[in-house]
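Usage

Read records sequentially. Each one opens with the input sequence:
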Amino acid sequence: MPSLNILKLPYFTPEKQLPAPLPDPEFLREDQYPLDILRGVRIGNHYVARYGLDPVAGPLEAVNMLIVSKYTKIPIPTLYAAYWHEHQGIRSFVMVTEYVPGHTIREHAGNDADRLKPLVPSITEQLRCALSQLRRIPHAGFYGPVGDDPALRSKQFRSATEVRNARFDEYIPEYRGEPDDLSRRYTKRRAAAKKQFCMGLSTGDAPVFTHGRLDMWAIKVRLDGNICITRWGSAGFYPPEFEYMRAESMGEGCEVWKDILAAFPENASDERYDLIENIFHEYEDMMEIKHELMLKEFDEMGLSC
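and closes with the structure output:
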């Protein structure tokens, strides 16, 4: 398998390939233009611009888009420029991408579900193809986000066990109060669940390139029914089930999204997601019981909170 080649920033598409002159960063400054940093603002007929992105997350998204463009044919917005701009001593990150007409699956599901339903088989097949291509990107030899920023080092791991361990701790809180019978039972169950969550998969644990936030907001449906996948800021190399777990967790109450999830490869993800969900509910139940006991104690003491 070829080694991963990461293009360095700043990045500019060759001028002869631009559909129009790039917007002037002085025009894009937040004090000059009402920019929406997360979604960006449409500039003319061709561009979406974002100014003032997080100095780590912004460059990371740009690098991820360049990787996907280089190694796959997945439809994503074209990245036209990604660079730092300094104004009066303040350094900001700027991204200019292609304007893609259409609506996200979330927007369709909320406003135009009847139009979306007939497109579900095609969307699912397109997504299945995209996920297959992502898994063929040569990995960087570690798990986590790709990049050489020192701030990313703590988020890069040597093994699937390490990254699953960190993800479990991110999802499931530890109990840090005074121990009692209730919290001891929870701590014991949490430890057992964590051990099970960190176990390897029978299908293999090699890191695969994942989008990281592949949900209903990240998939735009063009006017012709073809999809375009956006929002690459959380992408990186992770255990194979992470993509599905994130997507599953973001589909609450949307039947169409549940059908589209059929595009994700089966790799024991349902079991891992259920494990996370169940132990988190146990934590919530424990904290609710503790809150009720505290209120009862206050009431018996004639106090109120």
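Summary fields computed downstream for this record:
- The chain has a mean pLDDT of 88.
- The beta strands are 11-12, 41-43, 47-53, 79-87, 90-98, 103-104, 208-210, 219-221, 227-229, 236-238.
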